[in-house]
Fold each of these.
Amino acid sequence: MTTVYNPNTCYKAISTPLLIISTEKIDIQLIDWNLRTAIDGNRARKFPAVTIRTFAVLFKIISGIEYFCDEYYYFGEDRNCQEAYCIVFPPPPNHQIVQNAYIVGHDHGVGKLGSICKKQKANCTIRMELPLITATSVKCNHESDIHKLSMDSGVRTAHPVLRVDNVFRVFFADNITGVAAVQQKLKFTGKGIKVGVIDNGIDFHHPAFGNCFATPGCRIITGFDFIGNGTPENPQPNPIPLETCDGHGTHVAGIIAADDPIKHFTGVAPEAQLGIYRISNCDAETSDDIIIAAMGRAQKDGMDIINLSIGHDFFSWPEDPLAVAASKLSDSGIAVSVAASNEGNEGIFTLGTPDSGANVITVGAVQNTKFFTFFLTANVAPKRKIIYETTRVTLWFGLSGPLPIKPTSTQPITPNDACTNVTEDFTGFIALIARGTCTFTQKLQNAEAAGAVGVLFYNNDDVQAFAISVVNDIPSAFISKKDGLFLLDEYNSNHNVIVSFPNKTIIVDAQIATQPLNESGFGPTFELDLKPDFLAPGGLIFSTFPENLGSYATLSGTSMAAAYMSGTIALFLQAKGKTDPKRIRDIFQTTAIPEEMRNLNQESLGMLHTVAKQGGGLINAFNAIQSEIIITPGKLPLNDTPHFNGTASFRIKNLSKNTKNFVLSHKPAASARGFFGGELVPLANTLFDPFYAKVVIQPSSISLKPGSTITIKLKITPPAQLDPQDFGLYSGYILIKNTDKSGKSGKSQNQVGKYHKRSTNKHTDGNHKHIDSYSNGNHKHNLDDEYNNHEDKNNHKSNHKSNHKSNHKGSRRSNHKNNHKNNQTDNDEDYEDNDNDHNNGTFSGLFEFGELDPNEEFTVPYLGLKGDLRAFPVLGLDPNTDSPFIVDNSNGNEFFNSSEVIPFNFLGNDFPTLVYTMILGSPLVRTLLVIANTNTIVGTVFQDTFVRRNDALNGDVSFFDWNGTVLMGNSSIPTPVPDGSYQFILEALHIFGNPNNQSDFITWRSPVLVVQNSASNQTSVVPSNQTSSNEKKVAVAIS
């Protein structure tokens, strides 16, 4: 019997929020302001206030730290706590920032800020110089010190240093991008081009990188480790950027430039030189000043290209320091390839920083065409190869067999299959279990308790088998619905089904080949810039991995797409020479191939993907390099309705020696509506419709002589079907088609002579865990940790109403922490072709292509928003979903209404926390303190500029703890307020709003805060997230 938790006795002895887990029923409750939130993996999920049942024992708190609740803890004199609960402390509030560390923009020059700190009597020390953005990062003893420093006339800004936890945005692709044609026909390999990889380091002992670092003849010519074994708070730089604990950087570098003489595996640009800059430790922790310092070092080292498969999600502002730094690199002549966010499943406006940088190349991801996978066989059909995935794509099951299987339910796709105790004896059997209702982990544990030696899960929909995340002590794998029902039928017929797991792989067709990954970031930026710029292969990408983790791995994400693009740019630069990065972006945008929306059967849905998802489309390296036409600009962001006058234009220049004739036409793309009921909705609930703009093109046919340029003028009318109140996105392409040709399709990248695909035989994956998400082009298939019910994951509209209280993690990487199975593949085993007949395909290594003319078709993407973005409710005010509220930390109570009264004495936990939700980003968010029930301003509680949106669908909120002080007038020192009754006025400026026009703010008035005995009780209070007043341009993060 589980002891009942008594918050009145337990909570008084505990000074921080708690996650409390029952040791008997594994029930969960959250106390304090985190009430009604449980942690699923490393993402916050919403649950009702009642106890949550049957949750996994292993939890990963927001910080990424794993806890196993196998001990009892108690506090004070309450023995019930000791007997009933495992208690885990989540990270403290404001864990997104490096405490009291700031990036200070100033005009004093490198090495000068230290003396200014002394002059201003600010107790701050220098963390690192950031000349790329004319700034210095500092660490101060107290928050008041940064206010002192900010009063210096040469100090422009002071942004807090942000922690960027889990930052990373994770070859058959070559024949869908023209890269194979460039390598084989044009013979370009990236030779002489330097690519800087800012990531988590590299295993340079890998043969694909020459087993060397920065020695004569080594392809890794330079690098640096900016964090070492330290943390963002206390980095420990090291001259050697070696990394063997995670693999992300090794995988990314391999996509760009691997050349393995043993396995004969090569990257996109196998003769490019690499600079490796390690900015993240083994816990995937870093900070923005560390990243900016690495950018500056790469620039100093003479890199031609910099790859940034990293970022901070939902900060979709080009003014963010990371975005500014990346854009400055581009302005200096370095091509910067940046991964779009991996938050596309959350719908529109899900990009971040630095991918929103104005001049960077922002890359989204498409699915590969084929991938390697293991298979099992059954005695009832020995020639049938049933593909499966374990906790990562291309990872062996771990048991060879032969072993008998037995279903936990003989009925097909039982909804709650194995969600309760399995009563039948499964000793010696592999359990066959249908997906649905409860977690993979729960099903596995119930089967294991019944004696099962392994588990085969089968899908409950038609999606291809994918990697799963499961906490397991016995092997487990996932197979398709078709294969699962086949095994179930055979068992029901003869009860004698024996399976074996060969240590071999086969090549399988990806179900949604060339379609944008659902998780690939969805534009536009908050200021309606057209992003991403285009797409590159990022799903199911096979590449190098640390040798101790298996040498090779298959990973997915925009990280892989950005790396693929970096390698492609290296080929381009070798072919074309030094080129303005913005020109490179224009060329690749206008030679890319817009992708059609297709279903799981690859049947067309009759619409192109919105430009907000795919930018220019899938890159075509051969066309980009061979193009004799330059189109500028390469994209047309049309802004919102009040800021668009209905016209646009671009220029076409003929670089060839021949006159070229073109006709121009309009290719519309699907409209996208993702704002309903006052909130942004996930991709699964986003509507895509054939609502098209009307476009008039002048002139619509042209004849261009050699060296001549013409301006094309457009008149664009937004779709009549879109309601301005929905803030719908409309988009499309201007097609420029060469009429001198014979009518062959020119925008096909699969047409170049006859040649052999480079070998990828005899490669294996390591023992590493990875979670993939799959897309069918217009519907969400979210495969997150623990929650495996497909139907539940695809309906978010009703399950994100009850909770607003969680911290944003800022993750851009796919989760591939260590998988503790010891099941490495035999490296000497050849990959086989799959001879199955159920959508697995074959691969011979030989392709037949016809004649290719890269100058036949070009496209220019455009994107606009119908409606006035100044009317978009950037701040949530709905009391049922996302209204701001005050938390009384002394008891966890929440207060929403301005008529409520809450006393605080600021002793211990007796202080208020303001919690609020940013539906969209805001250029300016501030909180003023006023005398209760008046508009008389006492001072500024905090002010922040270019604020991120919250991922409200996953419980992410903004918040700050108030310590009873404000900034008054021009004072730089926080001043305690006297006893009295006050209220917060929370204000968020609409995008494109005027900060001097009060009507451009959306505001909220708090409950009455009664300050009692404040002057003598300012100790033992959690530091606040205060910023300066309006008079100083100092921005400090809210959350």
Note: Residues 1-95, 742-851, 1015-1039 have pLDDT under 50 and may be disordered.
Amino acid sequence: MASVNPFNLSDSEEEAERRPNETVDTERSPSDGAPGPPPGNPFSPPADAEPPSLLLSSNRTSPSGEGISASAAATSAMAGSAETRVSVDVIAAQLLRDQYILTALEFHTELLEAGRELPRLRDYFSNPGNFERQSGTPPAKDQVLGPGGPLSKGGEKKNRAGSISTLDSLDFARYSDDGNRETDERVAVLEFELRKAKETIQALRANLTQAAESEVPSQERKNYKSSPEIQEPIRPLEKRALNFLVNEYLLKNEYKLSSITFSDENDDQDFELWDDVGLNIPKPPDLLQLYRSCGTPLPSPRDTADVSVGVDFVDLPGNCIQQTEVVQELEYQISLLNNEKQNLAEQIKKLQWCVLECMKLSPAFQQALLSFCRMCSDSRLGAEVSRIADSEESVMLMLGRCLPHIVPNVLLAKREELIPLILCTACLHPEPKERDQLLHILFNLIKRPDDEQRQMILTGCVAFARHVGPTRVEAELLPQCWEQINHKYPERRLLVAESCGALAPYLPKEIRSSLVLSMLQQMLAEDKADMVREAVVKSLGIIMGYIDDPDKYSQGFELMLLSLGDPSERVVNAVHQVFIPAFAAWTTELGTLHTSLIPSLLARIEKLHTQGEHGLDEHKLHVFLSALQSLIPPLFAVVLQNAPFTSRVKLHGDIPAIEVTRFPRPASPLQDVATIIGSREMLSALLQLYDHQLEHEGTTGWESLLWVVNQLLPQLIEIVGRINVTSSTCVHEFSRFFWRFCRTFGKIFTNTKVKPQFQEILRLSEENVDASAGNGILTKATVPIYATGVLTCYNQEEDRKLLVGFLEDVMTTLSLSHAPLDSLKASFVELGANPVYHELLLTVLWYGVVHTSALVRCTAARMFELLVKGVNETLVAQRVVPALITLSSDPEISVRISTIPAFGTIMETVTQKELLERVKMQLASFLEDPQYQDQHSLHMEIIRTFGRVGPNAEPRFRDEFVLPHLHKLALANNSQSVENKRIDIATQLFEAYSALSCCFISEEVMVNHFLPGLRCLRADMEQLSPEHEVILSSMIKECEIKVENRAMSDPQGSMSIASSLVGEDAKTKFLSKMGQLTTSGAMLANVFQRKK
């Protein structure tokens, strides 16, 4: 074993200088014993014991063949002159010689701490060969090794001898002071050493195999020896040793970066351990020492020996014997490998001989012979098959040549399987023309790709863009999109539109804001397919998210207005879901959301009012107002992010969760305030500080919120006051806008900033009852929008009370002011659409029913007509009808008359027989009670109601109640002496009969009531309006003909005047006459006035 010799006493220069002064008794035989230690030597064993050293006999250095005691030499060395100081190297040698390993280790540690490293101890403890597989046991203190073998001093063997464990297996706590160990501990140590030995043998076998594989053939070695100028190739073991020395040199000389690079390039070697080079290979001197001693050969450690000690493998104990066996085993393995190598060499020679035998055929004969193998290399495919690719580039070239021929022959349903192959080839192919052809194939792969196939192609395009970078995307992918922008199939154009959005993040910014934006703008304006324009809008939104050119703001604004005006609902939805949120995010970055974008939309809404001479353009109002509504979440985000408290936001600690109903449901994730802010945690923390700021600290210095309060809100309220209150569409749009606005900005903001501004304008107080006192605003749309858009935002008890009080005040004020009720009606219609507010509205109306003023009671009675249609029949029976019955017995006749439209609406909408009978009885009392015979306004209201509800009422109610009473009223009108009243009644009767003429009427009712009533009405019209008399005569004639025909064919059938017009001439005449007249009361009245 090539290891450091612990018995070599000449390793220290200090000891070499002292050696001439030391004497060693070489003639003393073992039988004479060793001299006793000097009295002052603390390192000697006790006087009554033999030195516990390992005694070796050697025939190499002792001419007499007698062994000497190594301890005697050490003792004589330490017994020199008293003045001479003992060398630390001598002490180390003594400790190692006597196998005081632990003491030597502690001694070595103390020297290291003192900065006096001893080479002997360093080399000894750094060499694992001194500790592994040492099964030999040093003799006990009473044992000596003589010619007769191990002897015991009392004739018996001591139990102190045990295995010398390796340092990494020592457990000092397990050894007692007397040295005794348990059997299981000994077994554990032996198992560990056995495992280490097996691992070492395995490593040796691996090194041996590597060395055998890389061994230079013998013939080449002869060439190297005969030609010294030819250097023999380096062996793996030599390479690893040199690598270790080079790395050590680099580290010692501060070439740390070079050392790191060198280690990375040799990652199969551990430069921290010399043992990784090879098993028990001694570490040579460093490169500097090798360079300095390159002229003189270094002595081999195996060839050096102490003057007084010889080494013989026969007498080596334990570890050396085991290593000798390992070496023998390895030599045997080497011999086996050499034999195997020779056998393989012989087989190679035989194969070469066979090849030479085959080569005896002439090349022409060989070619003719092989021609009988059916191979084809003349065609394109044959040439590709016969030419196997041998590199990545050749594979790409082959795929580029073959794919254009493969694609047309693959089924359409399976062509998406080729997408990865096409993209990979297009990415890596070196030829631009081939890449362009492959991408052209990709975009034309499927004739009409469905959603899944388009998604697959888009995924591939994005992967291609990530791989090749913006330049190639612009040069290679965009031209493919441009070519198909006008493709005849919408699916292909849809692919182009989607590609523009998907590739936006990977394009150069100049191309995004110029070419791609122009392509999408052209498609939005020209494409006729809704799904293509929808995809265009979404891609435009993505472009807006990545655009950074402020000059493109105006173009983006125009694109937003253009897409909002699209006739397709799905396109408009895409604008609100994607484009507007992205555009708002960009304007937020530019700082123009509340300074430019929102004011521009408000200006366009105001312009609609100024230009609307013939009425407001409701469609454009919807477009602009819906865009404003979609900008509410980003506006609120701007207010939060620019608030004075943003620097105090803390995301750690207990942050309360946001209530589910805190914000209106967003149209898309991009309109979610949490998404705009960044996270729900951040939004929750900001909302806490926002509410606290509004409630306790005010808005001083909060510019974005002050703009909302001082500029946006007043402008919106002013616009609301100018819209037409009778336009239910406008009222609904503004109500929805204010509802979302108030819910987004929160309850505290609504109560402290929004409501006060409305209340200041409405001024609901007793002194302002008179319309002339500046209360005209109550007749505007401000009332329904405030009631339905602001007061309904929150549904707590105090909020409901506030809404009820406001509606009661409006109803009272308008009634007492004799003002139009349109604003109150609009409020009831908007609120009545939601069943949640039915009870609340009934509460308001009951307040009017019991009011002391007859004007207020009349208003309440008329409001019931609006509410009946949406209320369920249970509420009608329990709340509505009792209130109407109460009003129908009111002392004021005007109040009683006001209930008639509501009763008629109940007859039109309710199906409960009991309820209908109660209403029928009440209406009958109005018609048959003598006190109402001269009530002209009551009769007018009843006829008007019959004409409105008759076509939709129950047929039995119409036949048994409506038509007979209309006949009576027509008959009574013939004897009316007051001409104005007669004209009014005739006008209403004509409108009622015109509406009822389209209903199916039984023959009996037709003969007994309908026709007689028409004749009575014709009698009035002969005197008052001959034009209407012509129409009535035609109606009567056709009804008579129908009755005669029905009597002959189907006596029990029913008929309608419209269906009884059998003759084309009669039908044309009737319709033309009806078309020439306007059946409104005002027009008929004018006709009658001209008659007079």
Note: The radius of gyration is 56 Å.
Amino acid sequence: SRMSRRRADSHGSLGPDDEVVPYSDDETDDELEPSIDEQPEGLPSVSQLSGKVNWYLNWQVKANDRSFCKQPQFQKKFFLCFKRCKYAGNAIRTYKYNVITFLPLNLYEQFKRAANLYFLALLILQIIPEITTLPWYTTLVPLVLVLGITAIKDLVDDLVSVTCLFQECRWMQIQVGDVVRLKKNDFIPADILLLSSSNPNSLCYVETAELDGETNLKFKMGLKVTHERLQEESQLQSFDALIECEEPNNRLDKFTGNMLWGRERFPLDLDNMLLRGCKVRNTDECHGLVIYAGSDTKIMRNGGKTRFKRTKIDYLMNYMVYTIFVLLILVCAGLAIGHTYWYQDVGSRAWYLYDGLNQTASYRGFLSFWGYIIVLNTMVPISLYVSLVDAHFKFINWDLQMYYSEKDTPAKARTTTLNEQLGQIEYIFSDKTGTLTQNIMAFKKCSIAGRVYGDPNNPDGSPMGHDKRPVDFSSNIFAEKKFQFYDHHLISCIQSKKDKDVLEFFKLLSLCHTVMVEQREDDLVYQAASPDEGALVTAARNFGFVFLSRTQDTITISEMGTETTYEMLALLDFNSDRKRMSIILRFPDGKIRLYCKGADTVIYERLSPNSKYKDVTQEALDVFANETLRTLCLCYKDISRADFDAWSRKYKEASIAMRNREEALDEVYEQIEKDLLLIGATAIEDKLQDGVPETIAKLAKADIKIWVLTGDKKETAENIGFSCLTIHSSQSNSRRNEPLGKPKKIKERFFPEGGKNALIITGGWLNEILYEKKKKRRRLRLRRLGKKPSPTSPQDSQPMNDHEKELRQQDFVDMACECGAVICCRVTPKQKANVVNLVKKYKKAITLSIGDGANDVNMIKTADIGVGISGQEGMQAVMSSDYAFAQFRYLQRLLLVHGRWSYIRMCKFLRYFFYKNFSFTLVHFWYSFFSGYSSQVAYEDWFITLYNVCYSSLPVLLVGLLDQDVNDKLSLMFPKLYLPGQQGTLFNYKNFFISLFHGIFTSLIIFFIPYGAFLQTMGQDGEAPSDYQSFAVVTASSLIITVNLQISLDTSYWTFVNCFAVLGSMAIYFGIMFDIHSAGIHVIFPSAFKFTGVASNALRQPYLWLTIILTVGISLLPVICIQFLCKTIWPSVGDELQRNRRKFERQAEEPPKEKPTFQRGARSRRSAYAFSHSRGYADLISTGRSIRQKPRARRDAPESIKEAPQAENI
């Protein structure tokens, strides 16, 4: 009989099970099977289904037959009348474009930008002769340049997404129906039905960290029939079973199917399936049949769709373009009306203006409207520069401070369009396992018989000085080389063998567990159900108590070099209700002893009144808990032979009980696990990645809220929350039990003191609060049966309609946002994405998701910014991310340095770009009052063409690439500098209208000062320089000098390149202008270059140079005064830092002071290992299924012969 069991159900529970990962929530009609009590009428009952295909098992797979899936009945429509196979290939598509769709899709995405669409319409207008006032190339050249550069950039981004590992390329060849062989440490390439393995009973151990974030191993098992008949390659080759199973879905916790083989039907469930993304462990070889491939696999179904991400500034730019377009329409309409009246009063009567066209004034006004649309087109900014400034992504790739040398992994920006969004993040959603932690458990301290060990001490027990050296375990041939311990006093106590409690302590650790052991190249390799248990057995191994082997009934250890075998009488495995495990052993001398380890909350209740060390161990537990270590109590009990025999009879009766077996076993376990004697306690450190607490603390100072979303257990997640400072001892953990979503007349806070609460919620409760799926599943079933669903009553705490559902969701988000820390545990990949979506929806916040596993892909795709950690859980998160690096601590540099700089640069760039375009364009508006509103341009055509491309682009591009208000060290030292990006204060409608009025003011000065200077003017040579062409040259020259000096005033970080750009832009302007105005080019192209000799004639007049200087001075003087007053009277945080930059830089160079980890007087809490420990391998051990079997000759053995397995040590 078995000495272990499954977890008992919690009777009377009013809520969901906190330990269970809830179902996914996006099932369809086809994915929902009827339960027993909801079976459709007319369908066969469960008993009648024997020998028939279940009505919901629509997916059929034939082993070793690829052509089976290509039959006509398995074809589905995908576009119009075109069909393709419904079975997906195993190639995973992480890119957006292919050869056919690149051009149309990319152009569609680009023309979503209103500016590009506007310029396309403008180009069409310029082709019409009666309307056009500018040559067509003035619009075509910038537009083609924009579209071409952006398309190339998008193509490069997409090619980065296509890059994959060589291993994944080989996966592409796998198809549904293939029989595949996997070896140890292989990633599973598809959802595969396990057929056989090299382990006994076709067991296969898998690591599921990419699916649920848990690092402990799970075991899968092949069917008995496939285990016995599919071991040889020839048998696998002739395997021809037909699999009938459910359609592909995203439920990681469910699989239902049948295998039809040799006229027999065998049931299949999730225990027989190896899911894509898992890793084969402790199994030399296994064979399986591919059931789902590629996008049909469960992990890919949880991955979500690839989304086109755009920044908040990009969306705001679109609305600003609409605003400019409305202003443009109004201005052009006003000027068209002016031209209509002017032509009636003046134009029609002036004989020298007669053009031979008998057009009415209204029609001429109509043509003038479209003419001004073309003339004033540069009011609408084209998006070329927004694309080019995004070259900042290269600085992220080149940042050596984000380079992880241990794995030769640099930071990688996998997108070029989201950099400024990094400076506006308000919420970070982080995975736990592999993102915050290293997936490494370390034995740090222990309390034995009232004494605490683990601090750096000498062999005599005195504290060690500054020279902290670890214990030398080289004398122990079994010692784990990576294990480090600094208390030399403990090892001296063990070696002296004088302290019996110390020896009993480590003997318990080496015996009381469910660890499996494997001999590999003269080394022992332990495989534990949880990393905690592995750390404890490894610690005992280093201290001289080495677990060597086990069979179904015995366990063998080496005690200080002496090998001893104990008979295992019973193994009472761990579960989340018991929070403890026990083992009953018969010693070689016949003594029977029970060893027990578990959470202090359950161990202390079961201690004998005569047990020693209770109080001192309790104090030690408090100290361990305050140091965020995971604690565990160890105890034992001697049992007489008569007592054990009596208890064993009760156990056997309970184990065969037909009703309430779990409760009966619980009661029997309670009878033996009492009157225990306490030995001590252990303290394990769940190692965080380097710099995680400091990073989280720094991001919190920047007012960035961090939520932890993990598939791991609640207690583990809570413990990590304390370790990485997302939860503080001063915070209280909150769970809200009253229904959410009731309408409130007044918006009131959920907690009177905001930020002093921490919300820890499990996936089951998240489903209850957010009304995920239970009612939907029932509605779908009833709809399928043709019945009307019964109305939901208010008493069942489910919302009556979508409005109430939205109220409940909004209340949850509001409540969570009031908390200082939020941890969601036992959540599915879909739930992670839903939580991110809720915050985006109800808080309108910019979000960032960071993770390292395939279970984080959906969350990464849903957030505005997705960050992948290239860690221990594969590359799927990195492949789906926007940015990737190796360590969580690099996130602070990504946001507080690169993100903030990118946001400031982009905002400064856009404000200046609007300003310089308004200054340039509105000169035409003032000129129209003196040209009869006739759509006449104020500048030369080639100046209009080259203004944004050559004359004013380089300085602003360099500001957008290189500018910084403070350096990187001060950016990290003062996280408050990040706040303007979150608040959007540097670029909004207020800044837009300031740029508009600044441009209006500059255009007024640039037009009217030269206009006044040209009135009644005589040059030195007696000629009047007041002609139109000379006026155009003076206004253009004044404009170029003004806008280039204006960007100089806005530049915070000067380099040689910036100086060269400003002076070079002005030099390029004058150089090109003199070339264009030369006689030589006029002779070659007389119709295109009409300003012959104008520049040389006008600019030789000192009077005009004085006019240019006066115009530039008056334009810039108010700006200089306003900047001086703002920085003096109303300085920002950045202004104050710049003023005292040297002082703060010296402070940044000083090494930070270390803060003590343990604070006296802090409120104690439990970080118990037993709460987070997983169910062990007691089932496999006690039944003998995991014991290695001697090889059997199968080549000629008939299938009917049964061979008796012979057990031997692992």
Note: The mean pLDDT is 78.
